[in-house]
Amino acid sequence: MTRLTYAQALNDALRGEMLRDERIVLLGEDIGVYGGVFSVTSGLLEQFGPDRVLDTPISENGIVGAAVGMAMSGLRPVVEIMYTDFLCLALDSIANGAAVFPFAYGGQVSMPLVIRTQGGAGANAGPQHSKSLEAWTAHLPGVHTVLPSNPADAKGLLTSALRSSEPVVLVEHKLLYGTEGEVPEGEHLVPLERAQVVRPGRDATVIALSRMVGEALVAAEQLAEQQLDVEVIDVRSLRPLDVATLAASARRTGRVVVAGEAWVRYGPTAEIAAAVTEAAFAELRAPVVRVGSLGVPYPASPALEPTVLPDADTLRRAVEDLVKSAR
């Protein structure tokens, strides 16, 4: 094990797989000379050269469209979309290209394409650089959508994505890049379809996405002082969704809170809540509760942004209210 930041763990995965597989090519805005806006690709241009680390024009749909063609031609492209908000510009190439071409061509082509993008708020980046739009790509059959919450998973999920023959969207949270953790040295893979119970408990379950996993663990420690034993599950993957692990926990505790940073309506928490309810309805002691951002554009003001975003206190109150209503 070695101690790395989230950003360093991603860099470690890219470097290791580029050494292992010469078909891997990186594309994106400012990923070469600048090393990426969050330094994830730092040093890779110097090591692998401009034929494998390509600085591109500002044209998200063009970048992903080129990568789709590369994947169909036998390369393994990795695209960086600088902010999740800019997936809007690339959705045609993702939804009508990457997601469907293996089916449209009757399995004659594969799509080993990885799209790395940075989501989430909390950095006062304003309404055009703070969204959580993972529900958009998770809605597409044929596209994996994963959200690492810690450095070890960042390396393991990205490595698995780089070895997949299907398109994978890896949503990295910008507030997590500087967080540190123990990361396995050398080869490390995390399955693209498996949730993880990161804190066992018996009184309630918090199912969390990305940055909210850390907030859920803080809330669980606070609730332990009230003799409430809260289980925390890291979803890791939205598509495919590990319903079996989530439902098993719901059956054990009977109370479930689903926590994400995206807007609540029509977001990932809604789908997870529906899936858990369908699978564990008879054992639930109360309706599943959803926690997410308020339904407004994200403010850039440092004073206003925290009022929009969920945090550990939001989760603690949600669990407290749920337990009181379902004694």
Could you describe the 3D structure shown?
With 327 residues, the chain is an alpha/beta fold. It has two domains: 2-183, 3-Layer(aba) Sandwich (Rossmann fold); 196-325, Rossmann fold. It is 37% helix and 20% strand. It contains twelve helices and 14 strands. It has helices spanning 6-20, 44-48, 60-72, 87-98, 101-104, 134-138, 151-162, 212-224, 243-253, 268-280, 305-308, 312-325, and strands at residues 2-5, 24-28, 53-55, 76-81, 114-119, 144-146, 168-173, 180-183, 196-199, 204-208, 230-234, 237-239, 256-263, 289-293. A seven-stranded mixed sheet has the order 3-2-4-5-7-6-12, sandwiched between helices. A five-stranded mixed sheet has the order 9-11-10-13-14, sandwiched between helices. A two-stranded antiparallel ribbon has the order 1-8. Helix 10 (268-280) links the parallel strand 13 and strand 14. Helix 1 packs parallel to helix 7 and helix 9 (243-253) crosses helix 10 (268-280). The chain is globular, with a radius of gyration of 20 Å. The mean pLDDT is 97.
Q: What's the arrangement of secondary structure elements?
A:
Layout: E1 2-5, H1 6-20, E2 24-28, H2 44-48, E3 53-55, H3 60-72, E4 76-81, H4 87-98, H5 101-104, E5 114-119, H6 134-138, E6 144-146, H7 151-162, E7 168-173, E8 180-183, E9 196-199, E10 204-208, H8 212-224, E11 230-234, E12 237-239, H9 243-253, E13 256-263, H10 268-280, E14 289-293, H11 305-308, H12 312-325
